[in-house]
Write a structure and sequence with these properties.
Structural class: alpha+beta
Largest sheet: 4 strands, antiparallel
Radius of gyration: 15 Å
Strand order of the largest sheet: 2-3-1-4
Helix content: 25-40%
Distance between the termini: 17 Å
Order of helices and strands: EHHEEHHE
Shape: globular
């Protein structure tokens, strides 16, 4: 299986100006992520967490990550289909994790 680092990106200015979700909206967002996780199943190695820039020059549009696995990039696209982050207007960037020989 190939591993993929998935970065969740969004416009930082737009995020800063978004109102706090109502409890109902927060519950809907949580349900959407839980539904995606159930669909993705064993493709999820590490569900991930939110992120924030820790150094000058870090990309402030990166707001979280996941570590996923699939046979190849095409199969990963199926796992990411209907992902709640893109459904909410965010972008997803995917990087293949390339193991270092002998490590």
């Amino acid at each position: 299986m190939t591993q993929f680092l998935v970065l969740y990106k969004a416009d930082p200015e737009a995020l800063a100006n978004m109102p706090q979700p109502t409890p109902e909206q927060a519950a809907e967002m949580t349900a959407a992520w839980e539904g995606w996780a159930a669909k993705a199943g064993p493709a999820i190695i590490d569900f991930g967490n939110p992120t924030k820039p820790a150094s000058d020059g870090a990309d402030p549009s990166v707001g979280g990550y996941s570590l996923l696995q699939a046979d190849d990039y095409a199969a990963l696209q199926g796992v990411l289909e209907g992902h709640p982050h893109t459904a909410m207007g965010g972008q997803i960037e995917v990087f293949e994790v390339v193991p270092i020989a002998g490590m």
